[in-house]
Amino acid sequence: MPQGGFKLYIAETEFLFGLRKNDKWHPQVMKILELIKKGKINTLQSSTSAFLEVSLVLQTHKIHPEQIEDTLFLMKHKLTEFNIEEIQLTSDDIIRLYELLRKHAIEFFDALQAAVALGKNATLLTNDKIFKKIGIKTISFTELIKKAIEERSP
Q1: pLDDT, tens digit (0-9, with 9 covering 90-100), for 138-154
Q2: Has residue 25 been placed in a domain?
Q3: Can you give the CATH number for the domain in which 47 is found?
Q4: What pTM does this model have?
């Protein structure tokens, strides 16, 4: 957990896709980035697992490897611009992933994102309801925006 007892938030894959202007979550992602820039959110991190999922989704859609590389680079650059650090995937996360798959009827990458969040005792920033159903702490984009505005208001 970050210093000072702050809650750690981990951005799930839809946050990365939300960096794209044509994505349905783009306005909320940009608002979150604006709040980070203003210092109202300071404990958001991304995960290697989210980048892996993005790459495989794009590959499944027959996107050329060069375009995937460019997309991942631009996503990483945008996160770096806002000082959003990346949480590395660990072998413990992989073990936890298979524990979650054994216990719950969920998709591989959902279990992977959940495993990373559990390993860091973090709250997953996601609009996907599946995570709450399996007991993962979550916060939606809208909830995080509202919380950041309310907590830091004079």
Answers
A1: 999 999 999 999 875 44
A2: yes
A3: 3.40.50.1010
A4: 0.89
